[in-house]
Amino acid sequence: MEMYTKTARLNMEHGFVKFVVRNQLDRDRYDQEMREKMDQRSSQTVPARRTRRVPRRPDRAVYTPPVARKPTVPPRAVLFRLEYCDTSSGAVRHESFLEGTDLAEFCASFAKKAGLDEKRQRALLERLQKEVGQDESSNTRQ
């Protein structure tokens, strides 16, 4: 029975066992260093990282049928067109007066483009007020 009392044990002098022990000690030392670094980092205030503000995907092109593509603002009707001959170039110019446009502003912009003085601008305004007034009175009779 003496044979069975001796049990097989690892030979601690063997190179493989020495390697395992050294590896465990190195791993313990490394873990200790990492814990210390994490403690130091948590105690320090770290500025926030910059994040990119780029969308993940580009916006999809949405199909809109032709009926829906129409502008929401209804087009304004042209009440009259004013034609004049440009004295510097001799070209005939056209200005359209749209419904809802202020007559005084229209005359001011027209006078500026045509190079009219203030006296002629006032005369144009009076004439257009008279014409627009005649159109309105004829429209109300009908």
TrEMBL record:
Pfam families, per database record: UPF0561
InterPro entries noted in UniProt: UPF0561
Region (Disordered): 33-70
Family: Belongs to the UPF0561 family.
Stated name of the protein: UPF0561 protein C2orf68
Phylogenetic placement of the source organism: Eukaryota, Metazoa, Ecdysozoa, Arthropoda, Crustacea
